Each structure stands twice: as structure tokens, then as C-alpha cells.
Amino acid sequence: MNAPHAPKVAGIDPSLPSPTQTADPVTPPLAAPNSGVQDRLAGWVSDLTTLHELTERLVRTDSLDEALRELLRAGASLVGARRGLVALEPADGLGPVITVGLGLGHADLGQIETIPRGSASAGHLLDGLPEAGGERRADVAHPDIASEADLDPRHREVAARLGFSASYAVPLDPFRATPRTTPGLSAIPAPAPGVDGSGTGTGSPADAGDHPASGVPGVPGSGPTSVPGTTSVADAPPVPRPVPSTDHGRDTAPAAAPSSGLTAAMGADGPSGRLGAAAWLYDEPAEPAGRQRHLVGLYCQYAAAHIARLIELSRARAAVATVQEELLPTRLPRVPGVRLAVRHHPGPRGGGDWYDALPLPDGALGLSVGGVSGAGPSAVVAMGRLRASLRAYAVMEGEDPVAVLSDLELLLRLTEPARSATALFAYCEPGTRKVVLAGAGHCPPLLTGERRTEFVETTLSAPLGMLSCWEAPSVEVTPSSGETLLFYSDGLLHRTGEPMDRAFARLHTAAASAPKGVRGDPDAFADHVLRTVLPDGPAASAGRPSEDGTEDLVLLVAHFD
Predict the structure, then answer these.
(1) Could you write out the DSSP letters of every residue in 483-507?
(2) Rounded to whole angstroms, how far apart are CA atoms 210 and 374?
(3) Domain named PPM-type phosphatase: which ranges (predicted)?
(4) Which of 118, 170, 308, 367 is deepest in the core (most CB within 10 A)?
(5) pTM listed for this prediction
(6) At what angle do helices 35-59 and 290-327 cross, to 10 degrees?
(7) 561 with 340: CB under 8 angstroms?
(8) CA distance 85 to 71
(9) From the CA atom positions of the chain, what is the Rg in Å?
(10) CA 308 to CA 266: how far, in whole Å?
């Protein structure tokens, strides 16, 4: 039986064979990169991330003590140590000289300071640099203190007493020679191969492997490796290699030329040269590997630049505070019938608040407090000029406080047209306990005793320099025997951190609640007020400026016998 024929359709010839299905050519898979290259690339990325995180935490510190403690914590994590110390001793000799410990108490730091500086790792860096030939120590390692015969016996004794067996120290020098002399985190060049005899990298800063300088030796087809967005190691500038020495792992490296960008960031007047040294202590005999040394060296260079800026800032603040203190009275006058005490805590930037007490003719006493607008050196200088002028006006016409402040306002308007100021002046006659006051926008004084505590209204006036013609009424008060008059600046109220009405109420309560034994001593009364009014009262009463307060604090106490 014959098979049926397919029907004929126009345009189709069924006799032609069906086309065969052909598969697309399959491209063989690319050969996977060598695992060693991937490991090293991962190690570089991990190191870059670690340094970025640590430096981010460092730059968020805004005080020298915080920066030094963060340096110790970060360095301990990089070298695998548990304790450490940093000795800050700028080479220019201008200070500050500070020693901060990690996991070490004050007694421990005292014992370490008894080690001869030439033997201690940090002290060796501070005293032994630069060395002959202009070379600088890159680091100092004592991998096994007990077995090093050339160490000072005191060094081994202190190490045994404190329980550390090894130490590693690096200098704090913004211009220190490191495997990368240009500040930045754009790339992590590798240390010299073969430093620790290991050619592997695991991606952790605490591991012992080193990164290859270019490619992977002995792996066919491996070449220079780069991370997208970073500088290729093969294109990096030549790296100064440490010169090995025979002095217990201490390496020397040629001094690096100061980076112009780093110099500009630090300022021309900032601290130059070595700032100090940081040392980390191991509980067991140990020594950081080459890769760890490389990472901690980079980090310490960045940390040294940040610390140098903080040192420059602290020096500037100290200079402003010194000028401000010198412009104020060094001691208060002694006038029969009245006893005085003062507390002055400048703000961190230096402000324009002042106080004054000067003896006047006929046994009278002039008391004044005030402040100019603004902060910083210019405000301090303007404050000094106003205070000196007020003293002159008070000597000539002190019995009329309104005239004194009127003359001061005219002087301010002519010589400091861009500034305003508040002021309060009191003319006191201790014999009759008569006080005449006038204020120019300043906080009202507080009169307190066993039977009353009330504010003296002197705020019916504008600050100096705010109006074309200033005038204000004077107020006369007569304190009773044993009562106290408090003059203060608005910084005392602002440092409470509360609204002004609650701050005034807090001051009123502090004065009214003073114990009877405190009221007769103006110094004790001033300390009581600060302890009660301020949140950080103990720090303020001890004479330490509050870091949280941005304004000056002035408290002048006059106790009438």
C-alpha cells in the first residue's frame, strides 16, 4: 500500500529536504583568573577599606586627647596588640608634652617612664632621630624583651612587672618616609617582598602576608593588577624600601621630602618635624609582620597630620586665653567693708566678656562686668580696649554710673562702629553700704541674703552701640550687713542649656539655697553657685573650662560685712 502524497501547494516543493537544525558555536568559557591574583586583589581592597574606616573615625575627633586615644585603639587593631602608649613631644619644643596610655594606668605609665629613653622603644625614637647620615628610624621592634641581652636591665624589669614581652613603636611624623609618601588612600602600594618570608595575603590587616609589588611571581600570565578607580601598583611612583639593620628588627628609611599639600593643610606656623612616638605592647613574644608594619605606618602618617592640626589649634586657643587673662585683673583689691571673689572660665574660642574691680577716691569701689559681641582674638582685643576706657571714665566720674556708660557708648560708636557691647557698672560706698548701678543691656545683678533674694532691675536700656543716643536710668540699692551682690555674664545662663527664664530661676534658687556657713565666704559662695547652676558644676568650680560652653563665664561676688 502506497503512502499518501502530500498535497501540492503553490510555491512549495515538497521534494526538497528539510533544513537541518544547526547549533550556534559555543564559545569556550574564559579561564578563571589565578586565585593568587584574586587573593591579593581582595587583600588590597580590604586594606584600603580598613584604613578608610580608621581614618574616618580619626578625623571625627576634635580634641587632642580624643585623637591620641583613637590612634592607640586603631594601631592596636592593626598590629594585633592589646596595650600601648603614645608620647607626644613636638620637636619644636613648644609643647604640649603628653603621655596617653591604652590599657595602662597612671602608675603603669610612671613605671614605663623610668626606663632609660635610649632603651625604651618610644624613647629611642624621640631621642635617636635624626641619626648619622640624615636617616630616620622607620620603626623600633623588640620581639622578645627577655632574651635581648643588649637592653637596659630596667627595661626588662619593668616589662616583667607590667606583664609585656614585646613592643613595637613607630614615630609620629607627618613627613615620615613610608611606602607611600603622598597623603591619601587612593592606593595601597605593597611593601618590599620577602620582608617576612610570606607571599600570601588573606585580606586581613592582622595577617602575616605581604602584597606583591606587581603581579604574582611564578604564575604564568599574571601581571600588574589594579582596582577600578585606584592607581595601579605598576604605575605607582618608586617606593623607598626600608634598609634592614642588625639592631633587633629596627629599620631605617631615607627621609621623605615634605608634601606641599600636607604642609598647606597643617599651616606654615604649625608644629614641624617629629611630634612624638606611639608604642604597642604584646603580652607574648611577637613582632608585626611586614604587611602590618606597612599599614600601621600609613595610618600613623595620616594620624600625625591630623594631630599636628589639633596641636596648632590648641596652641592658638592657649595663646588667646593667655592674652585674655592678662587683660583682666590679676588680683582683686581689698577695700574695708566688702570682700570680693571672682570666677572666670573662658570659652574654647575666646570671648569678649570682662570683669573689673578698682578702688576709687574717698574709699569707694567700682565694680563692672560686660562683654563685646563676637568671639576670637578680635573680640578679646576689643574687650581690652573697652575695659581700659571704662576704668578711665570710672576714675573721673565714677559716682555717676550713667555718665560712665554714656562716655563708653560714645567711644564704642566712634572706634568700633561694627560692634555692640553690654555693660554694667556699680559705684559702691562700703562704709554706708550704698550701691548705685547702671546697666546697658546686661543681665541684672542678684542681691541675696538670709531674708531676701531678688534681682536688681537694670535692664531698662539697650546694649551699647545699638542706638544713636544711649541713655538709661540708674538704680540705687542698700545691701544689709551680711548680704551679697552677684554680677555675672550671660554665659553663666547659656551654659545651663535651658531657656533664659528657667536659667534665671535656677540662678535664683542656687543663691537662695546657699547654706549659712557659705554665705559669709565669697569664694565658697561662688563655688556653690557654679556647682548648683551648671550641669558640669564640679569641672567649672575646679577652674577647668567647659568644652560644651561656647561663651565666656564671669561671676563676680561682692559680700558686704
Answers:
(1) -EEEEE-HHHHHTTTS-HHHHHHHH
(2) 54
(3) 337-560
(4) 170
(5) 0.60
(6) 10
(7) no
(8) 10
(9) 36
(10) 7
Q: State the cell numbers at 313.
A: 589649634
Q: Taking the chain, what is the end-to-end CA distance rounded to the nearest angstrom?
A: 144
Is the distance from CB of 219 to CB of 169 less than 8 angstroms?
no
Closest CA to 65 of 99, 93, 89, 36: 99
Nearest in space to 47 (alpha carbons), one of 286, 305, 289, 306: 289
Site of grid cell 602608649: 85
Strand order across the beta sheet in which 351-360 lies: 351-360, 364-375, 421-429, 434-440, 475-477
Instruction: Give the Cα separation of 411 and 511 in Å (integer).
Output: 36
Confidence of residue 267 (pLDDT cuts 50, 70, 90): very low
Give residue for cell 548680704: 483
Alpha helices in 416-521, H assignment, sequence order: 490-494, 500-512, 516-519
3-state SS class at 530: helix
Residue 178's identity, in one-letter code, is T
The residue ranking higher by pLDDT, 347 or 227, is 347
Q: Tell me the one-letter amino acid at 457.
A: E
Cell 534658687, residue located = 509
C-alpha cell at 25: 558555536
Amino acid residing at 171: P
Find the mean pLDDT for residues 107-118.
88
Report residue 235 as a C-alpha cell: 604605575
